[in-house]
Amino acid sequence: MPARDWITDPGEITRRSFAIVEAEADLARFDPGERSVAVRLIHACGMVEIAPDLRFAAGAVAAGRAALAAGAPILVDARMVDSGITRARLPASSRVICTLDDPLVPGLAASAGLTRSAAAVDFWAAHLAGAVVAIGNAPTALFRLLELLADGAPRPAAILGFPVGFVGAAESKAALAATDLPYLSPAGPARRQCDRGRRRQRAGPGGNLTMLPWLTVIGIGEDGFDALSPAARSLVDQAEVLVGGDRHLAMLPSNDRRQRIPWPSPLSALVETIERLKPSRVCVLATGDPFCYGIGSTLARQLPIDQMVVIPSVSARTLVCSRLGWPEHTTRLLTLHGRPMALLEPHLQPGARLVLLSEDASTPAAVAARLTERGFGASAVTVFERMGGPAERRLNGRADAWARAPGADLNTIAVAVAAGPRAHPLATVPGLPDEAFSHDGQMTKREVRAISLAALAPHPGELLWDVGAGCGSVAVEWMRADPLNRAVAVEPKPARRAMIAVNAERLGTPGLRIVDGQAPEALAGLAPPDAVFVGGGASTPGVIEACWTALRPGGRLVVNTVTLESQAVLLAKHAELGGELVRLSVERAEPVGPYHGWRPLMPVTQWRLAKPYGSA
To answer: pLDDT by residue (tens digit) across 294-332?
Structure first.
């Protein structure tokens, strides 16, 4: 192989290149500071002919160098610009910030009618003061920067305006040159006069350009503000009022003098408190993902989502699954924060993986005790405290041997459910054994109940009226079919209402609403149902009419009866409204002396009717 005859020393390459630039480019009009920058610019592009086009605002070079010496941030519009910055040559540890890839940018761009490059600039506001800005790609980013500065955003120390392309590049550089900002930029061919009216203007009250919504919700982990993305940190820094728990607000620097509002008690007053602050920029600090049993859901129920920007952090569920190696889609997430322990019951299935959000330090022991009481003491329990932060701690053990002292209030529990000899898992599909319920014998029996619930066809999140509820077996099984389902049990007899409450607690539906009263009068004022089951009182005048009238379009009405009088009512209603009539007969094998024989239950006549969609 022939000996190398080309220069390999980078220092020598640079020296010779600079000498060529000095010899061939017209640099006479630049002062010494500008001259050194011009040489590097010409060297970078390899074109000595651009020297006449280079423009420097008075004092821009000195201001930019001073900013870098002080460690000011460098804001860039593209990753290629970021990659072109040699960190080793910076005089201080300046942070290079590129917000183009932030996950919030595409949505903001779409809603505001901007390019992604322009939308990303909106997240620079908190970092602009005294910064060095380098636009090396998008003319729209430079246009947007000029809009924000004209609208009162903090001034940077220096702007390097080098956008590229055939559309907007020359115009954006001309617009920069027409300002009093400290800039460095090459002049471009003036294909058309820069027309500020060509830029998309979004006028708000008083003609000011609207930027981001007034309300932001930022999820924060135990690793604090340092782990936030540049866009999230920018939104926190731009806020005038900060709202959060004591733990969140304590993460702020001690010299941060902005208004701070801790969570009010009760939390329901939070939205009213926040609304009174509008139009001030309000930032709500939340734990992890604000929409995972968090404050985001509370706010979105009462405020339009387009009035807020939400940037989540990693949820507790995701952190738990990453530490245990559990596929997240195979787990069930429950919150016990402010909710009864009975919610665990439908999920006590062998092999289930549960992620539980705790109420406080006492919750792990209470969960272990509940598991043991129900025969699932062999379940593996893992408690994670302060996940993601320097004080993270992990505790492991079996439910029936849990003897850990209460630790941190901020904890998440993982349970790998395992059944022991005393466990009696109950399925979530309809048809629980009759003995699973507290009842006085007057109940919808197992086989008929399963058929009735199939006809009611529970869909996630729907509301059932269980009229003449008895022991509440149909309402309980409706709610067990999906965690989002809701039900109202209407029952006039106090003893039976007490049984409904016992069954709701024991079988994991503590949210079942129990209404004291006789239909149809007791139905007044209830939320319109998606399904109605009439298990008692079908012959009472006005009951079926009231239920059918209240039923939502697409809803299902199922009426069961065993008496001849009620059957006559159903025959008449079937003739009037249609639907299906079904006769259900069940026989069970029972002892007959030393042998067994079939003992029939009372036949049940069932009327099923669905209300068409679009009907009143």
So the answer is: 899 889 988 888 888 899 999 999 999 999 999 999 999
pLDDT more than 90, % of the chain: 58
Q: Which residues of 176-197 are buried (b: 16+ CB within 10 A; e: fewer)?
A: bbeeebbbbbbebeeeeebeee
- The answer to whether the bond into 458 is cis (omega within 30° of 0) is no
Residues 258-269 have pLDDT tens digits of 999 998 877 778
Residue 340 CA, distance from chain mean position? 23
Q: For the chain, what's the residue count?
A: 616
Integer Cα distance of 113 and 123 in angstroms: 16
Give the active site residue among 43, 347, 459, 574: 43
The per-residue pLDDT for range 562-575, each reduced to its tens digit, is: 999 999 999 999 99
List the single range of 112-121, 324-333, 473-482 with lowest mean pLDDT. 112-121
- Which one has a higher pLDDT value, 513 or 39? 513
Residue 396's region, left for phi above 0, alpha for psi from -120 to 50, else beta, is: beta
User: Alpha-carbon distance 438 to 443, whole Å?
Assistant: 10
Q: Which residues contact 235 (CB under 8 A, 6 or more apart)?
A: 123, 126, 212, 216, 218, 283, 309, 311
Q: What is the mean pLDDT of residues 15-19?
A: 81
| Closest among 286, 283, 137 to 213, alpha carbons compared | 283
Q: What is the pLDDT of residue 477?
A: 97
Beta bridge pairs of residue 58: none
Catalytic residue at 574? no
pLDDT at 342 over 90: yes
Per-residue b or e along 350-372, where b marks 16 or more CB atoms closer than 10 Å to that residue's CB: eebbbbbbbbebebbbbbbebbb
Q: Classify residue 111 by burial, with Cβ atoms within 10 Å: 0-12, 13-18, 19+.
A: exposed
Please state, in angstroms and rounded to a whole number, the distance separating the CA atoms of residues 372 and 399.
6
Q: How many CB atoms sit inside 10 A of residue 223's CB?
A: 16
Predicted confidence (pLDDT) at residue 4 exceeds the cutoff of 80: no
Other C-beta atoms closer than 10 Å to the C-beta of 610 total: 18
| Cα four-point dihedral sign 406, 407, 411, 413 | negative
- CB neighbours (10 Å) of residue 70? 12
Q: What is the pLDDT of residue 499?
A: 97
Q: What's at 14, amino acid-wise? A: T
Alpha carbons 445 and 432: distance in angstroms, whole number: 9
Strands 308-311 and 282-287: unpaired
In angstroms, the CA 356 to CA 394 distance is 15
